[in-house]
Amino acid sequence: MKTLCLRLPEATAARLAAAARQRSQSKSAVVRAILEEHLSQPLAPPGSCLELAADLVGRFVGPADLSTHKRHLRGYGR
Questions:
Q1: Would 78 be classed as within a structural domain?
Q2: Is residue 62 classed as helix, strand or coil in its secondary structure?
Q3: Helix segments in the chain, DSSP class H
Q4: Which among 2, 7, 38, 60 is least buried, having the fewest CB atoms inside 10 angstroms?
Q5: pTM summary value
Q6: Tally of domains within the chain
Q7: Residue 68 falls within a domain, yes or no?
Q8: d(Cα 25, Cα 19) in Å, to the nearest integer?
C-alpha cells in the first residue's frame, strides 16, 4: 500500500476526526472510503459553452448582434 501525506485546514481535520470517531474507524480508513466512493463515480461531461458561461449571460450591456450591424462589418474580410 502506498503512503500519501497531505495538509488539511483545521476545520477539515476536525471534521475528519469526528467522522472517524463516529464510524469507529481510523482517519486513513475514512479517507480511503471517501476517495474510493468519489473516484468510482464517472466524471460528468463539462457541458456546452453556454452552460459553462450561464452565470455570465446577459450581464453585460452592448450591441444586440454584431454579426448583422453594418457599422461593425465595415472593412471585414479586406
A1: no
A2: coil
A3: 10-23, 27-40, 49-52, 70-73
A4: 2
A5: 0.56
A6: 1
A7: yes
A8: 8
Q: Domain span at residue 15? A: 10-73
- Residue 48 is assigned to a structural domain of this protein: yes
List C-alpha distances in Å: 53 to 47, 48, 57, 62. Answer: 10, 9, 7, 17
Cα distance between residue 24 and residue 22, in whole Å: 6
pLDDT in tens, 17-62: 999 999 999 999 999 999 999 999 988 787 888 888 888 887 877 7
CA dist 12 → 27, 34, 54, 62 (Å): 12, 14, 31, 44
What are 43's three cell numbers?
466524471
Confirm whether 58 is domain-assigned: yes
Question: Does 66 have pLDDT greater than 70?
Answer: no
